[in-house]
Amino acid sequence: ARKGVPEIVYAPGKTPEQVARICAAMLEGTERVIVSGPSGEHERLVRQALPDVPVRDAGRALVVGAGEPAPTGGRLYAIGAGTSDLPVLEEAVAVAREMGVAVKTTHDVGVAGLHRLRGPLEELRAFDPDCVIVAAGMEGALPTLVSGLVAVPVVGLPTSVGYGLGGDGTAAILGMLQSCSPGLSVVNVDNGVGAGATAALIANRAALYRNDTESNGQAPGAGVS
Amino acid sequence: ARKGVPEIVYAPGKTPEQVARICAAMLEGTERVIVSGPSGEHERLVRQALPDVPVRDAGRALVVGAGEPAPTGGRLYAIGAGTSDLPVLEEAVAVAREMGVAVKTTHDVGVAGLHRLRGPLEELRAFDPDCVIVAAGMEGALPTLVSGLVAVPVVGLPTSVGYGLGGDGTAAILGMLQSCSPGLSVVNVDNGVGAGATAALIANRAALYRNDTESNGQAPGAGVS
Amino acid sequence: ARKGVPEIVYAPGKTPEQVARICAAMLEGTERVIVSGPSGEHERLVRQALPDVPVRDAGRALVVGAGEPAPTGGRLYAIGAGTSDLPVLEEAVAVAREMGVAVKTTHDVGVAGLHRLRGPLEELRAFDPDCVIVAAGMEGALPTLVSGLVAVPVVGLPTSVGYGLGGDGTAAILGMLQSCSPGLSVVNVDNGVGAGATAALIANRAALYRNDTESNGQAPGAGVS
Amino acid sequence: ARKGVPEIVYAPGKTPEQVARICAAMLEGTERVIVSGPSGEHERLVRQALPDVPVRDAGRALVVGAGEPAPTGGRLYAIGAGTSDLPVLEEAVAVAREMGVAVKTTHDVGVAGLHRLRGPLEELRAFDPDCVIVAAGMEGALPTLVSGLVAVPVVGLPTSVGYGLGGDGTAAILGMLQSCSPGLSVVNVDNGVGAGATAALIANRAALYRNDTESNGQAPGAGVS
Amino acid sequence: ARKGVPEIVYAPGKTPEQVARICAAMLEGTERVIVSGPSGEHERLVRQALPDVPVRDAGRALVVGAGEPAPTGGRLYAIGAGTSDLPVLEEAVAVAREMGVAVKTTHDVGVAGLHRLRGPLEELRAFDPDCVIVAAGMEGALPTLVSGLVAVPVVGLPTSVGYGLGGDGTAAILGMLQSCSPGLSVVNVDNGVGAGATAALIANRAALYRNDTESNGQAPGAGVS
Amino acid sequence: ARKGVPEIVYAPGKTPEQVARICAAMLEGTERVIVSGPSGEHERLVRQALPDVPVRDAGRALVVGAGEPAPTGGRLYAIGAGTSDLPVLEEAVAVAREMGVAVKTTHDVGVAGLHRLRGPLEELRAFDPDCVIVAAGMEGALPTLVSGLVAVPVVGLPTSVGYGLGGDGTAAILGMLQSCSPGLSVVNVDNGVGAGATAALIANRAALYRNDTESNGQAPGAGVS
Amino acid sequence: ARKGVPEIVYAPGKTPEQVARICAAMLEGTERVIVSGPSGEHERLVRQALPDVPVRDAGRALVVGAGEPAPTGGRLYAIGAGTSDLPVLEEAVAVAREMGVAVKTTHDVGVAGLHRLRGPLEELRAFDPDCVIVAAGMEGALPTLVSGLVAVPVVGLPTSVGYGLGGDGTAAILGMLQSCSPGLSVVNVDNGVGAGATAALIANRAALYRNDTESNGQAPGAGVS
Amino acid sequence: ARKGVPEIVYAPGKTPEQVARICAAMLEGTERVIVSGPSGEHERLVRQALPDVPVRDAGRALVVGAGEPAPTGGRLYAIGAGTSDLPVLEEAVAVAREMGVAVKTTHDVGVAGLHRLRGPLEELRAFDPDCVIVAAGMEGALPTLVSGLVAVPVVGLPTSVGYGLGGDGTAAILGMLQSCSPGLSVVNVDNGVGAGATAALIANRAALYRNDTESNGQAPGAGVS
Ligand SMILES: Nc1ncnc2c1ncn2[C@@H]1O[C@H](COP(=O)(O)O)[C@@H](O)[C@H]1O
Ligand SMILES: Nc1ncnc2c1ncn2[C@@H]1O[C@H](COP(=O)(O)O)[C@@H](O)[C@H]1O
Ligand SMILES: Nc1ncnc2c1ncn2[C@@H]1O[C@H](COP(=O)(O)O)[C@@H](O)[C@H]1O
Ligand SMILES: Nc1ncnc2c1ncn2[C@@H]1O[C@H](COP(=O)(O)O)[C@@H](O)[C@H]1O
Ligand SMILES: [Mg+2]
Ligand SMILES: [Mg+2]
Ligand SMILES: [Mg+2]
Ligand SMILES: [Mg+2]
Ligand SMILES: [Mg+2]
Ligand SMILES: [Mg+2]
Ligand SMILES: [Mg+2]
Ligand SMILES: [Mg+2]
User: pLDDT (tens digit, 9 = 90+) per residue, D170-194?
Assistant: First the structure.
């Protein structure tokens, strides 16, 4: 796996047969594969073609394969604005977890009711993450808000949750790109894989040196390949 | 003036001579005219053509003519996100004032530093406005935030302050249109006139009945024409 | 309910199970919930999960729960341009009614046959509303026309009724945003909830003082929260 | 001249020298040439290069050459929504006049104040035109309105008069394209030449047969080339 | 029927029940109704609800009702670029026929093989139409070509036939709007109703006077309403 | 020079000093450099900084350096739709000439007057080119037409000549991309460099083998690097 | 078949019956027809209507008819970035093969792992093609890379493989159009037919002269028609 | 300074007087201010208003104020695709340096000539950065390439360098957003400030723990504020 990033199979545009075959082939060389954006039919065929392989649901993704990655010590805090942003956020979380990162998740935080942000912020401060992901659709303002309140990099994950003009994620991603809060970078609409991988690389870079300090242990996936 | 809305001359697309001539003609039938979006050359010619008429600066607008409108008792609170949003906000304020509304203004409030919102919110609560205008560019999130904190209608006024993709006001207006905070309506990018007129109509409708209560006085511009 | 606005559940992007569960949870703390944009499957599951709760149809929304809100005395006039705009307009009306506002509705008014506007305008004048909502698709000109004929604020509600270039509501919302009639503000395409909540806040602000005059009664949802 | 349409030189994108040279060359084979969209520099050079040729102003166009076309008996009514739409409308009128059509023009009609439409409509009915051009910017609703009130074809001429989102003529042309009034066709934004030529072809086709009735005279530019 | 234009029911966005009910109501006051853009389900319900009323297929439209309109003497030539443009062209033809116009149709003309245009052009010249409709998708160049070869007005009817970037009709309509051939005006993508009505109004205006010449008969739908 | 393509300096976005310095540096290793899109100031500084180097005008490009490339025997026919397309076409021609290709050019061919295409087509057939470039703005239909009439590859070169909606070259490039004439490929708007290089590579591949046949000579720039 | 290009039937927008009928008609005058973009239903009906005619699958196309075209000696190398780009690439290959060109195909090359490009490049060099097609979705960078490494023309074939903003092929085609690698031209998104025909015309022009050298044989489809 | 990010004054949209005044005010509380996007006039007035304050050029930014920030030990590698991307890249570098990060820069790397990437990659590996910024315009492919070759997070910085369709930075940003290389996140077009701040936060988080290991020193700007 390049850079410690797990193998990803983008399901849309592939037939269920292709997805199942690619998964089977990949599982000969790696323990787990992430299938991104599968339809029900994709999922059915993967399960049928690989009857002995555990398949876990991770929002709009599937984790195909047994076991767990070795923890790196990296820490990620993942925030979802609303219920509808959850499937995309879970995909990001699954990718980061595959990269050995410890993840804490909160959701239904909203932006119109700022008081709801208070609890999560306290939990966030206690957790002391190396990076934060904020998934949001509609006007996409939550990542800007969060980025103004924490001192670590924030990855904005716009979702295609919205309505009317700009409701396909355009308003959300434009809002994040316009953000006047430095320290916020973004990935494409609904790109949970990209958000999770970026955040995990950030967290694992910090963990590499934190580990040295604490245990002189081996850090995975860091350095220049 | 229709609905109590002052006469407006949109300067862009007109020659300076046309603007000056239209102002002169209108001032025969009304006390003051608002020139929206004048260039320096527009302003120079208006002043020259009307040497005895006072011309006041109001951001991206000019108020041409002497005197003050009679107060209606309507109350408007006007918030600007940043320094660059001020010219558009001032135009909105000028239009509302011409409609007899009392206006309190604050600015440089921002969205990335929420603590800066505290002072203005207290002032707002003490003033008890009938309506709030929030002007913001870039990601345009401030109107959503404010709308979540007050119980009166909020008019979102997006500005063409921004950069890169969506920086011509597109991100700001899309963000406001996506807003998940009910009670927020919007006008077009940089449309200070529209925001001011809408807010004043809202405020004057409330003032019409508040006045009855307090003084049985005459309310201007209310009712159905 | 914030600002007197009823609890809204946006159905699109949520599973029927999620919608039903959220409704059930909310109904423990409030009398009625509005489900916006449910599919047939959403509706079926809500009815099945809540067999004893009345579910009323309100165009593209459902009102879930028994009883009626207390009237505030606010008055809204709601106009639909064509038959196809009705579902969105009805959603707006349902939200305003939940906020205690009295609503009168007319529809099939059109813009190409101006004579058809005469009857509704007379009814409107007799009703003396605090605010007017005008829902229109296609070229979206009706709100501009109405705004030029009444002296209260108009909320433009563009719908995704149209065809060809701009027919997804883009032409309608751009037309309303360009409107040269001050006093018109807009919400996003098909955003009946936003239009209803904005109009109700405007009407309830006026009703607050009208009530004082007439009865010294308590006005709901007004003032700064 | 093809189809009776006068020779047109589009000035933008050509150097002043090219425009002057093309005019001179064309005037050897035709009496008059229309220069569309000239800058001040274009105009200066044309006048200098052709010192003995009369040059008339026609809004955003110039009519270069002496004399008048022979009247065909065709009749066109031309309406402009606002002062800023005049230059484009005048170009359309100049083209139609060059095609022998009699033109009556009115302007500053607006759409937000419908009463202002009454006078022009009476004049229009008395004139009994074969075709109507309506030029409008901003939300571009006037052509739809007029088309609903007259029984002859209407050519919508959108102009780049506007502001904010859609203000470059996009809202105007989309509005006209969405129009629910059958009988309205459109040309591109600011395309006065196209509107004038289309309207004149329509008028001259009718005049061809009207002339037969009245005088058995020769009709120009009609029939299939 | 306004301006001689038949009653049109736009089916998309209406339920089959609404469409059937509106047809039934309209048929009490007029002989025939055109249903534009019906789905199979729309058509089924209309036929079921009106078992004794003849329903004729007209491409993407249905003509509901018995009989034929009285001929006006107007003449229209209708050209389709390819097979896929036919349903939209047939709708335009149906509308024009309902307005009493005689229509000749040709199709599969193409633009990449100009020789295929020769036969239709000869037929067109022999027919001597008052107006030409050209329906085309993809790059939409055929109307421009035809307009350069005939001396009567051409109505461009862009269709949503295409692929990739601009393939939803955007390329076709932009191409027609950019056309450098004066005398071409356009309607929106797939707007067969608009094209047919515009062309018929043009043809009937000419027929009004041609009839006078030939027979002193009464021309329908002409003059100012 | 890579693939036989000459060195190109894109001037826009560079200071005149940078352009002059890069030219000077490149001329140490190559005989000629093409400067694409220089402003007057760019050109002035290049001439001043390189007083002994000949600078030839090539439409929107400059050819900086002495001498001529060795002819390859490749043949290109270059067609421009209108006068305003010439600067871009000339840039394409200059690039192809630098790659050793013999070029014949025609222009002012138009699309609305097909008869004007006859002469050029005869010349084209006599010349028997290996490739054709067609530059066109506005509706961009000429490349499609030409591609339907010749049996060699056609490179469509859209230009930013146009007006109103799509007039920045968008309509032209979309039209070419939608083209139903197989054998037409395109480059970006105003990208004369790309069109010239593509056409020259095509011509030089054919010339490589033609030369073998005729003279067993060395063909430049062909084969796989 | 024009220019040696096979007959193509674009299935989308046609009924299955129309497609089957057109195929049957064409097969009377030609040996094979390519059906582009058929649905399952299209394919079923074609097979049923033509029970004795072989139908071969070619990605998103079908080759209907028996036999093989005569080889011209032209050589094409076809590269696909990912598995999902294959159906479009196969259509291009089928069209080129029908034009007599020998095609070698490679795929799953990617751009993020440059080492994977090494093998294909060596194969490409050994094959010495006259032209290269590169199909890619998402960010569409592979054609630029390949074009920088080979000395023959490259046809970029963008596909609608992608996600979020620009994921419908817009990012891919824009990227190819922006390419700073001269010698790359493009066709529209998913336009396998256009890419195949363009590449085959290029290859056959070279083959025409290569054949002369080697065998004095007759080359098909070359020269000016 | 929030999060260790220096004070930034966005100059566009502010008058030179405002910029100078804000700088003066800020310099009372901080040592240095970065002015982003100043015009020549902005720069002149800042220098004049602050005659004793050193002003350093940093591409499209200015660093106003004396002294240097304390180094944090964070390491950033900054890559520019072409000469024209330098001003934006330098702004990013200035911001990162103000946050205490050590920066190594390379440029003119390109994507069409992959060999040019070799040298920088070796330097990069030796430097062992915590984060990489890649600035690129046009098709914006370089960040994807680099991200596939290094094991640390990459921040893509699209620039408005380009031409024709998508040349305002749209193609570049869409390409980066579509990137199939996980670990790449982006900021808005020309947003050097955002890229620099994000990269510095990433680097400083790693440095915080690396410092602990090596020296138990104090790390600035890390942790949760
Ligand atoms: N602290 C801030 N938070 C959010 N937005 C801001 C902030 N400061 C400025 N803006 C926005 O950034 C733009 C420029 O602000 P300024 O530099 O103050 O003129 C304005 O349109 C504001 O909406
Ligand atoms: N009273 C009006 N009603 C509607 N549109 C108007 C009105 N006045 C001006 N316009 C539009 O507003 C734009 C500017 O008008 P004017 O200020 O008169 O040049 C024009 O494009 C008109 O289409
Ligand atoms: N390794 C890769 N590098 C670059 N692009 C790729 C790569 N793999 C796939 N793609 C692109 O990603 C899309 C999906 O690829 P695939 O998952 O292989 O079907 C295709 O359009 C390819 O252009
Ligand atoms: N060799 C190259 N490969 C790829 N992109 C390049 C190359 N040279 C320049 N660019 C891009 O082209 C634009 C102009 O480059 P330059 O002419 O060096 O300023 C920049 O935005 C670069 O991203
Ligand atoms: Mg799932
Ligand atoms: Mg001012
Ligand atoms: Mg319902
Ligand atoms: Mg003039
Ligand atoms: Mg049918
Ligand atoms: Mg030049
Ligand atoms: Mg297949
Ligand atoms: Mg500088």
Answer: 999 999 999 878 899 999 999 999 9
The pLDDT score that the predictor gives to residue H190 is 97
Give pLDDT < 50 ranges for chain F.
Answer: 216-225
Which two structure tokens, joined as six digits, stand for E184? 């071409």
| Gap between the Cα atoms of E173 and E169, Å rounded | 6
pLDDT recorded at residue G211: 82
Annotate chain C with three-state secondary structure.
CHHHCCEEEECCCCCHHHHHHHHHHHCCCCCCEEEECCCHHHHHHHHHHCCCCCEEEECCEEEECCCCCCCCCCEEEEEECCHHHHHHHHHHHHHHHHCCCEEEEEECCCCCCHHHHHHHHHHHHHHCCCEEEEEECCCCCHHHHHHCCCCCCEEEEECCCCCCCCCCCHHHHHHHHHCCCCCEEECCCCCHHHHHHHHHHHHHHHHHHHHHHHHCCCCCCCCCC
Count H helices and E strands in chain D, helices first: 7, 9
List all residues whose CB is within 6 A of at least one atom of ligand 4: F 10; G 180; H 81-85, 108, 110-113, 136-138, 159, 161
- Flag if C18 and A165 touch (Cβ within 8 Å): no
Q: Which residue has the tokens 């959701």?
A: A107
Q: Where are the domains of chain E?
A: 2-64, 75-207
Instruction: Note whether E164 contacts G189, CB cutoff 8 Å.
Output: yes
- G100 band by pLDDT with thresholds 50, 70 and 90: very high
Q: Confidence class of residue G18 from pLDDT cuts 50, 70 and 90?
A: very high
Instruction: List CB contacts (< 8 A) between B149 and chain A.
Output: 114
Closest Cα partner for C1 from C197, C155, C203, C187?
C197
Residues B117, A145: Cα–Cα separation, whole Å: 13
When comparing pLDDT for C85 and E224, which is higher? C85
Q: CA angle F202-G116-G160, nearest 5°? A: 65
E83 to chain G, any CB pair closer than 8 A? The answer is yes
Determine the residue of chain H that is closest to F188 in CA distance.
Answer: H164
**Whole-number pLDDT of residue E46:** 97
Instruction: Specify whether the CB–CB gap between C109 and C85 falls below 8 A.
Output: no
* pLDDT given for residue F109 in this prediction: 74
**How would you label B103-123 residue by residue, b for 16+ Cβ within 10 Å and e otherwise?**
bbbbbebbbbeeeebeebbee
Which is more confident, E66 or A218? E66
Instruction: Determine the distance separating the centroid of ligand 6 and the alpha carbon of H24, expressed in angstroms.
Output: 23
Whole-number Cα distances in Å, E145 to A86, B26, E128, F78, F179:
54, 50, 18, 22, 15
Across the interface, which of A82, A145, A175 has its CB nearest the CB of B175? A175
pLDDT tens per residue across span A16-70 = 999 999 999 999 999 999 999 999 999 999 999 999 999 999 999 999 999 999 9
CATH topology of domain B75-207: Rossmann fold (3.40.50)
The one-letter amino acid code at B113 reads: G
Average the pLDDT over H170-194 and give the result: 95
Residue F136 token pair: 């066109």
**Is the CB–ligand 1 distance for residue B190 below 6 Å?**
no
Tell me how far the alpha carbon of residue B25 lies from the centroid of ligand 2, in angstroms: 17
Q: What is the H or E stretch that residue E156 is in?
A: strand E154-158
CB-based touch D/H (3+ pairs, under 8 A): no
- The CATH code of domain G2-64 reads 3.30.110
- Tell me the per-residue pLDDT of A189-204, one tens digit each, with 9 for 90 and over: 999 999 999 999 999 9
G75-207: same fold as G2-64? no
Q: What is the mean pLDDT of chain D?
A: 91
Categorize the per-residue pLDDT at A113 as very low, low, confident or very high, splitting at 50, 70 and 90. low
Question: In terms of Cα–Cα distance, which of A207, A201, A193, A196 is closest to A224?
Answer: A201
Min Cα separation B116/chain D (Å)? 29
